[in-house]
Amino acid sequence: MFESVLTTRGVTETTALAARIAADVVPGDVLLLTGELASGKTQFVQGLAVALGYTGPVTSPTFTLANVYETPRGPLVHMDTYRLDDLRQFRDLGFDAYFDTSVTCIEWGGLVADDFPDALHLDLSVVPGADDERRVALSASAERWRGVVENLATTGRA
Length: 158
What we know:
Distance between the termini: 21 Å
Order of helices and strands: EHEHEEHHEEEH
Strand content: 25-35%
Helix content: 25-40%
Largest sheet: 7 strands, mixed
Radius of gyration: 14 Å
CATH topology: Rossmann fold
CATH class: Alpha Beta
């Protein structure tokens, strides 16, 4: 298991973290985001989309369940499982064809983690007493993510 914990301050640093990770993502990658409400999950995906070259608005898929953004580096699928009751509902959405050909970010990703053993996990939380600071715990078991996590671990900051 490869692990690192970072701190970001404000939207700018959350976006910078997303840009650093975007430099290494390729179609087929899945990023599972967890954390309480307002911890920065959607902000991270917005930063990732911009870093991948997308220029339009990126909105939370809480009510639509999934949004697809066409970027110069291929599709970015932004999913949210907050309103789903179980893994079957997720599988029934029919997004299987996208997982091999897009970068996929899944908010509230804990529900589907077993389906994506090679995913990069990002657990975001608000630092108590510091509304603009976020703790971002990154973890992955797939060798594919070793360099990404270790590179981020050397700084401790976005």
